[in-house]
Amino acid sequence: MSDPVSFGPDLADVFGPSQTDGGPDLVQLLTPEGERVHHPEFDHDFSAEELRGLYRDMVLTRRIDVEATALQRHGELGIWAQLLGQEAAQIGAGRALRPQDYVFPTYREHGVAYCKGVDPLRLLGLFRGVDQGGWDPNENNFGLYTIVIGAQTLHATGYAMGMQRDGVVGTGDPDRDSAVIAHFGDGASSQGDVNEAFIFAASYNAPVVFFCQNNQWAISEPIERQTRIPLYQRALGFGFPGIRVDGNDVLATYAVTKAALQRAREGNGPSFVEAYTYRMGAHTTTDDPTRYRLNDELEHWKLKDPIERLKVYLRRNGLVDQEFFDDLDAEAKELGHHLREGCKALPDPKPLDQFGYVFSEITDEIAAQRDEFAAYLASFEGSTTTAGGHS
Amino acid sequence: MSNQKITLAKGLNMGLRKAMEDDDKVLLMGEDVGKLGGVFRITDGLQKDFGEDRVIDSPLAESGIVGTAVGMALRGYRPVVEIQFDGFVYPAYDQIVCQVAKYTYRSQGKVKMPIVIRIPFGGGIGAVEHHSESPEAQFAHTPGLKVVACSNPVDGYWMIQQAIAHDDPVIFLEPKRQYHADKAELDESATPEPLFTSRVVRAGSDATVLAYGPTVKTALKCAEAAESEGRSLEVIDLRTLSPLDMAPVYESVRRTGRCVVTHEAHVNLGMGAELAARVTEECFYSLEAPVLRVGAFDTPYPPSRIEEEYLPDLDRVLDAVDRSFAY
């Protein structure tokens, strides 16, 4: 009362007390202990087959991540962006998609790529340095990995605006109605492009789901450096709903994303899903999280492991037998073999390949540079000196 | 159809209309391009005729405009975006340089980026800061972008259509000072020259003057003035800045032995520097003098009351011609 100037209520009165562990609004269908709970708005009647499928997807996704990390340690990849701990967020979101939906990923959506049918081997090329994205984005409706933080959220919004113009939104035909999902992280939420994407999507009511994996860390910067309010609550200020889901709960992530995508497909516009999760590994294989976070925190999140809780649930309810686990183990091993052998066999690009594809057709200028470089390289043929070696 | 006399603004407007009629995947987007028809009226009447889905008034966010255009292109559209003024392109710079320019390369040719980014550029209109700039070298320096500049109404009509029909991203520079300045006769049944070509716009034998966009008119005036002094200047309208079309330039300089480049952009590391390097490399034994550059000083664009002392004009270009002959 002593302050004569007021801009309105305190943040805490509007948004509630700051939360460090998901908060009361967190949508959850499977607790870390593997207990199935229900939610009045977001729920889904999962069949045993669906549950086993989601478990299998997460195990195989973790295998992709573990294998790629090992390949980096063995010098076969220059770098790898690990997803350890984010399997439920990615599989839940990825399995909620229909074939006609389009994904705009960051560089960490290996699990979503897998759901969209992209051979995980194709993901390795970028990290090995043999290409910058080896898949055709329009073959699986899975865009190229985008390294500039948040840039892809605008591409997603523009793509969704294209869908509106193609008449594939709100027709009532489930095989036709389409939506876009834009992946990004908590760090990207500070980027101008992400905020512009929110504004464009809201303004045009574009069919796009903004799916933020809040894994608590942007390299070394904690979520508190990016925001003073829970991220999902930002959506309201842009004029569309935001929801926070337990990103380590594949069932809840699936149910919430499915609802958000359906909302978009029906023509009801954008929404924001904050998948509350944790980056259990490093930012990339070049990062050292021990410099900026306590081991206690990691241990705390290990208790919420996305795979373990579903395993407990499946076992407790007798939905799986030993044969299931044995088969899955064999499948994971086969996948690992595919990645190890395939990675080493990925061909290096040729020196002259760098001149291709700058444009839809090579220009005379670039062709001249290519030919000059080819002649230069050819001048070393039959010589003991190689290009670049003056000795 | 009888030929009509049109301004550059009208030529661009007619060209955009024709492109939209020819291909329903062509979309226009930008700030105030709809009901208002753009602050320069280049898109006048197009929203009325093609609807709000094809002529899109955007929120005021340049990165958003270009970033969403990337998404539209991925979906199979051919977006033509308007950046309201040259100095406002920088918020979109990241999307242009990191995404628009690199997507085709990143995808190894699987994805095309048929985006046209229209930018009114150059000074001389008495405007406030950020409204008179010439950022072309920043884009010409970026692999993956094509950069063109029109200089007259007829080119405006054809070049905008050619840029839209092209499968690669094109930075399309429009000399805003010329929008409503001069009229020229348009023959819509003519066959235009290819987009990425330079053109001799005045033949001469004593020295070659290279220009593009707003300085083409300056260079032509120089040639007239020089003629009265007994000097014959050949003027080349470069039209394309990336890729450069150097064949007509080399042919000309080998005949004349002298070359002066003029642009409104800063001289330091501007288009003139690249042109001088290439001409020197290819025409070394024909040159009677070094290639000279006449452009803006390496200072920020000044307050408009002294902009005529900043921009290259007839006297400064002729002075450079004199210096060339003094070698």
UniProtKB/TrEMBL annotation, chain A:
Signal peptide: none annotated. Pfam families: E1_dh (PF00676). Residues 56-334 form the Dehydrogenase E1 component domain. It comes from the Bacteria. Residues 1-23 are annotated as: Disordered. Its cofactor is thiamine diphosphate. SUPFAM superfamilies: Thiamin diphosphate-binding fold (THDP-binding) (SSF52518). Keywords: Oxidoreductase, Pyruvate, Thiamine pyrophosphate. PANTHER family: 2-OXOISOVALERATE DEHYDROGENASE SUBUNIT ALPHA, MITOCHONDRIAL (PTHR43380). This is Pyruvate dehydrogenase (Acetyl-transferring) E1 component subunit alpha. It comes from Nocardioides pinisoli.
UniProtKB/TrEMBL annotation, chain B:
Residues 6-181 form the Transketolase-like pyrimidine-binding domain. The keyword Oxidoreductase applies. Keywords: Oxidoreductase, Thiamine pyrophosphate. Pfam families: Transket_pyr, Transketolase_C. InterPro entries: THDP-binding, Transketo_C/PFOR_II, Transketolase-like_Pyr-bd, Transketolase_C. Its cofactor is thiamine diphosphate. The keyword Phosphoprotein does not apply. PANTHER family: PYRUVATE DEHYDROGENASE E1 COMPONENT BETA SUBUNIT, PYRUVATE DEHYDROGENASE E1 COMPONENT SUBUNIT BETA. This is Alpha-ketoacid dehydrogenase subunit beta. It comes from Nocardioides pinisoli. The lineage of its organism: Bacteria, Bacillati, Actinomycetota, Actinomycetes, Propionibacteriales.
